Recover the amino acids of this structure.
């Protein structure tokens, strides 16, 4: 049983390292302002995932994703669609992965 918990912690850490790096490598094709925004979203997602309780986090993700969809997809912005989708997915994905890692570490303890 201890090995399964340890494997879950390792998997969460690896996912939390690989996904932001992959996003940053993918966003290198776009202008610097999109890169900066993605970096800030990754940083804020990690901080929110660590410090905000689960119920509040779920409502925050729902609200911010809805606002992001309204602004990025329904507004007139000259950003390529893959970059818009990456910006929409970055914050919820990183915040969720950080919350999973936090819960796995608490459970492992």
């Amino acid at each position: 049983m201890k090995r399964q918990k340890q494997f879950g912690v390792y998997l969460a850490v690896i996912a939390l390292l690989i996904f932001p790096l992959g996003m940053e490598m993918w966003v290198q094709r776009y202008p610097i302002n999109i890169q900066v925004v993605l970096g800030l979203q990754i940083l804020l997602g990690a901080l929110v995932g660590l410090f905000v309780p689960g119920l509040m986090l779920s409502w925050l993700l729902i609200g911010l994703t809805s606002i992001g969809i309204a602004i990025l997809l329904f507004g007139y912005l000259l950003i390529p669609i893959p970059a818009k989708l990456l910006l929409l997915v970055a914050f919820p994905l990183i915040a969720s992965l950080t919350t999973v890692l936090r819960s796995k570490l608490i459970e492992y303890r």
User: Anything to note?
Assistant: The two ends are 13 Å apart (CA to CA). The first helix runs from residue 2 to 26. The chain has one domain: 2-108. The mean pLDDT is 87.
